Amino acid sequence: LRFTRTEPQVYGEMMQHVELSRYAGKTVELSAMLKSADVGPKGWKLFIVGNMPHTLFYSPGLKGTMGWQRQSVQLKVPPNIGEVTIGATLLDSGTGWLDDVQLRVVN
């Protein structure tokens, strides 16, 4: 997947809702290979959102021009959660690439 900012905007993102209620109390990790070109200081990042209660976590992300590297973000799945939202977001200028996306239970 490739995102390129072609005009001023707040952000661009790709996301998917994933049913994880059976993993309540466990930690899940979203990871992917990311690459960037001329990305501004706010970055190109992975994110994971626990929808009940609302919690948002980002990977460290990439800024500037960086080669492929694995990024990850984790969330301890709260009780009584139906689903989480996972994705990638370009929070600034430039181009970001995404490949080899994985979502797994880590404990």
Write the layout of secondary structure elements.
Layout lengths: L1 E3 L7 E8 L7 E25 L2 E5 L3 E15 L6 E8 L4 E11 L2
Q: How does this model look, in words?
A:
This protein is an all-beta fold and 107 residues long. 0% of the residues lie in helices and 70% in strands. It contains no helices and seven strands. The chain has strands at residues 2-4, 12-19, 27-51, 54-58, 62-76, 83-90, 95-105. Strands 1, 2, 3, 4, 5, 6 and 7 form a seven-stranded antiparallel beta sheet that branches. It is elongated. The mean pLDDT is 92.
Quick recap of the structure?
By secondary structure, the protein is mostly beta strands. It is 0% helix and 70% strand. Strand 3 and strand 4 (54-58) form a beta hairpin.
Which keywords apply here?
mainly beta, 7-stranded antiparallel sheet, 0% helix
